[in-house]
């Protein structure tokens, strides 16, 4: 029988991961609240609540891996992420499926230099504390021999379908030739993780077939450092749109906006990362799994197609 991979979450990383695995001839059970996702003969789409450990355990029985890409709404992480993480770890322990977590860099806190996978968890935000606790509890289960766990960590997402601040606040506007605002320093360098590369990393870990992935984190192969201004200029040039008109949004302005937008309220505590370089080192992942970042030109072309141009 073909290997089975259970993926929770059918969004920007879950759906492409399911497609990648199915194209490799692997069976995929894609679990989400609405039962959505791509159509493929090897993808079984299931509507279920991933916080229900009993139901998910039945769905994951005999699975090779359990891959979580589900994320609660940004303003409800402290309330909704812990029960989801607890249920998923419980399922991994019950079924023996290798547990692959889709994560980010929030748990590292403030870092001088490049983010590497061996950095300790040192969160300085509530959302960072949530991420750090999820990883710490999973790693404890791994070290105790109760589960095999790993985490794939991305920087800020790019690409069509990515639920990222850049896609919400900048990309659609500058492609229409409209002014856009973004929190933090517009000229500080940052690496960017393409959602397709996050999916390729998740798939590579799931298909490794040995013990290399387990008990540690892996960084998504990501672009060379580009500031918000540089990235936006590259995007509008690719679209043949006018040069971007960008404005930095201050913390005070965010606070004013947050009165009507709970998501913007959550961005305030992340200003430390928006004002500083955010540089993800993915050397270990690239060498171990033979991966490389998708060329930025390809990612920008996809973004232009997704959001349209002003011409």
UniProtKB/TrEMBL annotation:
Pfam families: Epimerase. InterPro entries: Epimerase_deHydtase, NAD(P)-bd_dom_sf. Residues 6-212 form the NAD-dependent epimerase/dehydratase domain. This is Nucleoside-diphosphate-sugar epimerase. The lineage of its organism: Bacteria, Bacillati, Actinomycetota, Actinomycetes, Frankiales.
């Amino acid at each position: 029988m073909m290997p089975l991979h259970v993926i929770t979450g059918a969004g920007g990383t879950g759906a492409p991961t399911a497609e990648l695995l199915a194209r490799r001839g692997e069976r995929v059970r894609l679990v989400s609240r609405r039962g959505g996702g791509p159509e493929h003969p090897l993808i079984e789409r299931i509507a279920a609540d991933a916080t229900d450990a009993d139901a998910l355990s039945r769905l994951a029985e005999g699975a090779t891996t359990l891959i979580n890409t589900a994320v609660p709404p940004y303003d409800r992480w402290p309330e909704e992420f812990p029960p989801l993480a607890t249920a998923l770890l419980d399922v991994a322990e019950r079924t023996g499926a290798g547990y692959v977590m889709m994560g980010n860099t929030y748990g590292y806190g403030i870092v001088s230099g490049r983010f590497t996978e061996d950095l300790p968890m040192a969160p300085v935000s509530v959302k960072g504390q949530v991420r750090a606790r999820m990883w710490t509890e999973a790693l404890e289960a791994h070290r105790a021999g109760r589960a095999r766990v790993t985490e794939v960590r991305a920087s800020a997402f790019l690409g069509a379908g990515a639920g990222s601040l850049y896609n919400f606040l900048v990309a659609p506007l500058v492609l229409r030739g409209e002014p856009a605002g973004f929190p933090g320093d517009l000229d500080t360098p940052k690496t960017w993780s393409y959602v397709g590369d996050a999916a390729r990393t998740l798939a590579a870990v799931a298909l490794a077939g040995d013990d290399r992935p387990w008990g540690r984190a892996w960084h998504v192969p990501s672009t060379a450092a580009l500031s918000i201004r540089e990235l936006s200029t590259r995007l509008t040039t690719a679209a043949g749109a006018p040069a971007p008109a960008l404005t930095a949004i201050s913390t005070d302005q965010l606070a004013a906006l947050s009165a009507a937008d709970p998501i913007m309220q959550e961005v305030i505590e992340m200003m430390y990362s928006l004002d500083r370089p955010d540089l993800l080192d993915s050397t270990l992942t690239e060498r171990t799994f033979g991966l490389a970042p998708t060329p930025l030109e390809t990612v920008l072309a996809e973004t232009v197609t997704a959001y349209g141009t002003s011409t």
